[in-house]
Amino acid sequence: MEADEERVPDTDEASESRPTVGDILLAIEELWPESLAEDWDAVGLVAGRPDREVSTVYFAVDPSEAVLDDAVERGADLIVAHHPLMLKPVHSVAATHAKGAAVHRLIEAGCALVTVHTNGDSAVGGVSDVLADAFGLSNVEPLASAADGLPEEGIGRVGDLAEVTSLGDFAELVFGLLPAVAGGMRVAGDRHGLVRRVAVCGGAGDNLFDQVRASQADVYVTADLRHHPALEARESAVNGRPYLIDVSHFGSEWLWLTPAANALSNVLSDQGFTVDVRVSGVNSDPWDFVLTPGGN
């Protein structure tokens, strides 16, 4: 199932003042500063000329082949991708391998690529903030505060539901908010157990269990939970908590795209620029189908 493509409308269709890639980089730095990125990350401009004019910006989770094809088909001059194209070093961009082919596709189409990854996670209004808002959490604070950022910046979020609910009902809420993927969603814990304090981390978050326990969360929503960290978390749980909800990596980050696109559009509009900002409808979750015992 594909998520519906969304278009952030121009605030002034009559204006023809178009930003350059460089102008958009400055706006991105204002919203999601590179200083908030983790040391191991690779964010910023990946391909493109800073002086090139931009008419259409396209937001996506992954700079995958299908995403690049869709962006180019829709006339994108710049792609803002959450995940890096080249997180690990490469020694060639020959089109004989996937990464090189992606670089050639971008250059030949005249389309720039910018990565907003862990800086987009940590910033106010970032990936985990969007999840916390979607789940209706209040009194929200970071799970792991940014070293040099504001108190409200950092990786992950924890907050409180308006009312105590069962793990089963909360899991259904989460499932209904995220885009449909083949792998569905996994839950560890008593379906009838009560939850109110919720920790979230968009993307892979099984390196934050110490912070989750310290936050006294009843349930932790994240993606890519590996066997050993999840098992250790369950065996060290107090009264079964924190319960675990393992969601799609893609799905947990896709919700951020529309608020991020709106934020960038607003900053550029305030600066007098007109640009068409679109959100990808391509589902880049890698799985196609899943088998479960009994279908329960």
TrEMBL record:
Keywords assigned by UniProt, alphabetized: Metal-binding
Highest rank taxon of the organism: Bacteria
One GO location term (cellular component): cytoplasm
Pfam families membership: DUF34_NIF3
Binding site for a divalent metal cation: 82-83, 121, 249, 253
An MF annotation (GO) of this entry: metal ion binding
Metal-binding among keywords: yes
Transmembrane segments: none
NCBIfam families according to UniProt: YbgI_SA1388
Quaternary assembly: Homohexamer.
Family statement drawn from the similarity comment of this UniProt entry: Belongs to the GTP cyclohydrolase I type 2/NIF3 family.
Protein's name according to its UniProt entry: GTP cyclohydrolase 1 type 2 homolog
Organism: Arthrobacter subterraneus
